[in-house]
Amino acid sequence: MDGVLIINKPSGMTSHDVVARVRRILNERSVGHLGTLDPSAKGVLPLVVGRFTRLAAFYSEADKRYEGVIRFGVATDTYDADGEPLGSPERVGFSPEELREAAARFVGKIHQAPPPFSAKKIAGVPAYKLARKKQDFELKPKEVEVKELEIVSFDGERAHFRAWVSSGTYLRSLAHDLGQALGTGAHLEGLTRTAVREFRLEEAHGLEELEAKSFNLHNTSYQTLDQGAAGNEGLQSLFLHPRLVLPEFPAITAPPEALVKIRHGNAVNLPYFERRDVARNVSSREHGQLVRVFENQTRLIAIARRIAGTLFHPKVVLI
User: Which pick of 84, 108, 228, 254 has the fewest CB atoms within 10 Å?
Assistant: First the structure.
């Protein structure tokens, strides 16, 4: 079985826990995720299954969107609600306007240090293992980009927010640093990831739903993951339609005679029409253009790179 499955990860599970459970449900060893989500966080965790694991490289720098709650007045050692408080609670004396002004200073490209309790490695050892042993170490700040940080509401202690950030941004660090800037301490009390690039929470499924429909895997033989088929039911219907994957790449339908060449990774001529990007004033047929190659409109079979004219070379083959 090949495809993309968007899981609504519950809090209390690691991303690896989710992958392991889905492997068991699908009886499929080749399952990976497109971006770790903290155990205490919930929301969008896209999984690539089967041959679609070969697409993971295209999502290594994927932007993410979140909604969450920051509690001010209490800092913790993990920067979230699972950690130990660092000192006594502090009085919160700033206004909603002062909070929004402080949050605005974190929008843009910033240098951010990961939380001490994180998977970042120090000389090959995860930082959280050193933190648990109370060992001293330093995590170097990394440049990340906060594209949006909106304070939705503030009740004098807790702020509800929405954020759009680049890959590698820690929302726990953002909450901690915002508390430091306001002089009261703070931690991330709750977090929901609402999107990973084109993958949205509205398209996500719970593990219980996946498990309930898994009997279809044992009763039906699937040769392809054709989600456009009429009357599609059961487990297959939970996978994202392949046409929705990597939408920034133009789509081409390969003629039947091209399939053998694509399968063996050979260059092939494909029907491709010039499309002009008005904003950039360049042709989408420029050298090196990546495209999605489909069979019968619904089966994604390759990601190919344009060599010249209508000649393309498969970069990733999915059949």
Answer: 84
